[in-house]
Structures are given as C-alpha cells and as structure tokens.
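Researcher: Good morning. I'm working through a list of sequences from a screen, and I'd like to move beyond sequence-only analysis. For each chain I'm collecting a predicted structure so we can compare shapes side by side. This is the next one on the list. No need for commentary yet; just the structure.
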Amino acid sequence: MAASSAPERVSERVVERVVIENCAIATVDAGDTEIASGHLVLAGNRIESVGAGGAPEGLANVVRRIDATGHLVTPGLVNTHHHFYQWITRGLATDHNLFDWLVALYPTWARIDEPMAYTAAQGSLAMMARGGVTTAMDHHYVFPRGSGDLSGAIIRAAREMGVRFTLARGSMDRGESDGGLPPDFAVESLDGALAATEATVREHHDASFDAMTQVAVAPCSPFSVSTELMRQGAELARRLGVRLHTHGSETVEEEKFCHELFGMGPTDYFESTGWLGEDVWMAHCVHMNDSDIAAFARTRTGVAHCPSSNARLAAGIARVPDMLAAGVPVGLGVDGTASNESGELHTELRGALLINRLGAHREAALNARQALRLGTYGGAQVLGRAAETGSLEAGKLADLVLWRMDTVAHSSIADPVTALVLGAAAPVTASFVNGRQIVENGRLLTADEDAIARSTRDEARRLATIAAQG
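Model: Good morning. Structure tokens for this chain:
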C-alpha cells in the first residue's frame, strides 16, 4: 500500500502551477470558445484548466500568479513552413520571380556550412519566438559536401531556444547536370539522401505526446528531386512512422514543368508517387484547380499557406477559402527569409486575411478568427500535433502567448481578436512553451538577442565573401 501511494505524493509535490488571471482568452477550440475575462492554470507542462472568472481556490504548489489585465491569451503560434538558413541571405534578389530568384541565390546557398546553419537557425527562431511562435519547423534541403552536421546544428539551436520544433529533413538529387537549379556539389545522391534522412529520423525524432523535437521526410520539390527520391522518400517516411513535407504548386512555371516532364500536373504527380495523405503537408499550393483541392480534401493532405512569400515572389494568391470549405487542413508559414525578410509569423495572420480578400471571395474570404485559427490550430493539424497543441484546452500542452492589448496600438479596438489580427503587431508580454516561459516583455529569456544579431551579421558577411570567391 505504501509503495503504491508514494508516487502520487511525489507527483503532487513536484507539479508546480502557474495561474494566469484577468485576461481575455481565445481558446481556438472546436467551438471557438472565447472568454471576456478568465483564467488559465498551468500544471507542469500541461494546461490544467481554462475558464471564466478567477482560478479555482485551494490550488496546491502555485509558484506564480500573473495578473494579465489588458491581455489576450491565445494558443502559441505554429509555423508550418520555413527555411532557416536563408536568414543570412536576406534582402537579395528582391525583384525576381521564384525560378529567377532560385537561380540567383543557389550559388550562395551552396556554400553554407555548419556554423552558418546554426547561426541562421538562431536568428530565424529568435524572430519567431519573440513574436509568439511556440512551435516552429524548418525545411532544410541544402547539404553541400563537407558542410558538417547541418541537421544537428539546426536542432541544437531550437533546443537551446526552447521552442517546440519539427525538422523537415529535406534533400535534392537533381543538380545542374541533370537539369536542376542547384550546383551539383550541393545535391546528394538518391541513396545518400535516403540514408542520411533515415539516420536523422532515428537519431532525433521523438514520437511522444510532449515531444520537443520531431523529424519529417522532405524532398525539396518536384523540379529539384528525382521521381525515385519522391517515391522512396514516401516509403521511408511511412516505414519510420513520420510525416512528409515538400513544396507543391507554387508557381505557374512549376505547373508547366510537371506537365512537360511527367505528363501531368503537380497534384496528379504527387498522387502517383504516394505523396497525398493525412501524413503529408505541402508548402504554398497557390495554383490549385477544383480537382486538386478535392484530392487534397479527400486525402486530408495539409497545406502551409505563406502569404508574404507568395506576394514577394509574385507567385499568386492561394485559394485558401476554397480549401477550408472543402475540408483541407491549412496552416500558416513564414517561408524562408530570403523571400520574407521580416521572418515573423504573427504578421502572417494579417497578411493571410488581407491577401485572400483580394481574391475571388473578396470580403467574405477570411475573417479575423479564421486567420487566428490558421496560425494556431490549423498549423498544429498540418504538423500532426492537433491533439497536443494549437488550442487552449485542459490536458493539452502549455504552449500559449499573452498579447498586450491595452497600449495605444490596440486599446480603442473593442474586440481583442480583431485587434490582434488586423491591428499593429501586438507586444508579447509572455510566451510559454511546454510550461516554460521563453519570452518576457518582447525579449527572449533563453538566448542573447544582441549576440545573435552580431553572429548572424558576421556569418552573412562570411557567406557573401565565400560566394563571391566562387
């Protein structure tokens, strides 16, 4: 009897509680429950309770109480598409479409090494985390020969920052000599890419409920990889039980490329190689017809919508309202900061709403609450983590953000969700990941932002010098 009761006493003693009170709450649960003035109780790394009014009386082991008057609390933002390494190549090729932009930048990207990848990941993660991102992902697909352990460096940066993270281990096996865009020394062989991807999954992927690091299989795009890498990559992911990610239907040029090379459009090509399914998500999906959207809905294939990048590269306006109406899971993505220099996800909430209203549905395209859902629960769906994060519900992981809404920027907007989405970028008073606070008053608690600013500047200059030398 004593042995069975001891673990309960130990567990109760070590679970520390944080109480957050007097805040507006947008839970983004299935019913879009909102609370004008309520509380949350965090117990360890979980949300213990969410409700109206003050927290329950008599809570044990309360180590901190936060008076969140004037704040809106939401789930942490979830980024579903990014290329961290591009942090050190921002501001280049600013007037190019996608293919010309890639041609201009691949010679520079092909020179990255491990210190550059680590530092660029720090910069990318810092910018997102201080702006409310609690779950990030990186699609890294450039592995120049002799460049070091790039995947390990990126994962280390995320671990140190304290952000929940998915590494989409990318790959390319179609270099210039095979009609691709990247230099040959920056691509891998088919077997090499598959072996390295499997090794990364086995070393770093954590399948547990509260995992901080997960890995997906992620060949870059139809025009930079072989059909065999697509097909065998899908088989590998399903054998290992991990998700699949790639770029899809981003530009009209890609559509033309697929028809010329494969005799079919991108969606049919993806289906022919095993790349549609509820364990798959794709970046962009700008040029989708009705049958494409129906195929994604039927298979529950997810989409990472990247409005700023799509505008920066003049790719077009994705049919997000039609995707949502059909039941396609959709989240938001920053995309690489060589095509989205700000690197912030919270500005994509506003961008998604505004850009989609320029499309066929006009003012009915998206509203503020749909935009917030894209950036939270929708992103968690796309990454396969909706059971764990993406909404504020008892039992879910304690990933949440306190946005200050009582400053001059927002105080005259009565609806806090509208203020968050359509107003200026809201200050982040606190951001919690896995129950641990990583941001306070807009500054990182887990990293030295000034040191990151210096190191990213230095690595950007070093990369530019190396690239110039050829």
